[in-house]
Inverse folding.
């Protein structure tokens, strides 16, 4: 069975994993743990632990259990001042961390409980904050503050040096394909690339490196970005020509929701610039990759996963697949 390592965090990674877990692939999801917002941020501060929110979300996306169990895990105590806005899954993972001392002992228990198909690994066991330095000289501390700020980010770092989970390095070494998931480049993907040891391991890996491009730009992060610009930003941290393959949406969206995104959230559809991608010598896999769920544009998880699986099995026969 082919081994896939996919880097990401939060909703973008979870959406892709919903599809990947349905295929005969050995998937290892590597998740950032520096979020400091809402429930996760409070638990992070109260228990002096890495962020649990993205990890617990990814676990649910890879769980092979019925919907009642998933609904229970996602349940939030909205009526309680004491438990306000905490989800069951976040509380369970926090309890297991408190009992077992680290993710390496806590995650297997929750994975067994949820019958998770695949492996979920935190990038690090360290409790750190993400820091962004903006072009106008401001310093933003914490993912929540970085996401809320519409200022253009020039550089990212951690509040202190991190030790990468050795299981992550081992998974990268054995991988047949390394994927950088859709999701926030600044707070979900690039945080994986701030450690030299992991960067070197990724570059030295014989596995092809794939990027699943976002559907929309993000204010202050990827304003006016085309598909090629996303890759160039990734390669700013990874090294030039590191990305071999890109999966991108090539279908123009035109709906009330697109206009809502543009007007209220300052988000635009990412332009599929095929000529530039060919010039960059990337293997291009393009298709209509979106759907609308709960009035939100998301990647079509099944179609995207199928394209990943097809590439793994057959390789790229053409530079564009439609």
């Amino acid at each position: 069975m082919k081994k896939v390592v996919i880097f990401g965090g939060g909703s973008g990674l979870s959406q892709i994993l919903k599809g990947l877990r349905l295929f005969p692939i050995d998937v290892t999801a590597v998740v950032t743990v520096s979020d400091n917002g809402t429930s996760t941020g409070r638990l992070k501060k109260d228990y002096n632990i890495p962020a649990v929110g993205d990890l617990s979300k990814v676990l649910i996306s890879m769980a092979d259990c019925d919907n009642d169990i998933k609904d229970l895990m996602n349940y939030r105590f909205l009526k309680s001042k004491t438990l306000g806005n905490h989800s069951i899954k976040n509380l369970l993972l926090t309890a297991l961390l408190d009992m077992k001392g680290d993710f390496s002992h806590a995650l297997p228990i929750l994975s067994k409980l949820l019958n998770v198909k695949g492996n979920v690994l935190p990038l690090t066991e360290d409790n750190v904050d993400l820091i962004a330095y903006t072009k106008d000289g401001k310093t933003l501390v914490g993912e929540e503050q970085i996401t809320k700020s519409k200022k253009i980010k020039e550089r990212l770092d951690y509040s202190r040096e991190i030790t990468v989970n050795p299981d992550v390095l081992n998974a990268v070494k054995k991988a047949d394909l390394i994927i950088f998931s859709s999701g926030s480049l600044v707070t979900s993907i690039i945080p994986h690339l701030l450690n030299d040891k992991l960067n070197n391991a990724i570059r030295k890996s014989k596995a092809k490196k794939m990027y699943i491009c976002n559907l929309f730009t993000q204010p202050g992060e990827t304003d006016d970005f085309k598909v090629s610009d996303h890759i160039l930003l990734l390669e700013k941290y990874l090294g030039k020509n590191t990305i071999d393959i890109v999966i991108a949406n090539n279908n123009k969206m035109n709906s009330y929701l697109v206009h809502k995104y543009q007007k209220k959230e300052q988000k635009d559809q990412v332009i599929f610039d095929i000529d530039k991608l060919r010039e960059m010598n990337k293997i291009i896999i393009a298709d209509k990759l979106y759907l609308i769920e709960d009035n939100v544009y998301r990647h079509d998880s099944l179609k995207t996963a199928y394209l990943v699986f097809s590439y793994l099995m057959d390789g790229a026969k053409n530079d564009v697949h439609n």
User: Anything to note?
Assistant: The two ends are 26 Å apart (CA to CA). DSSP finds 14 helices and twelve strands in the chain. The domain at 3-37+119-314 is CATH 3.40.50.10680 (Rossmann fold).
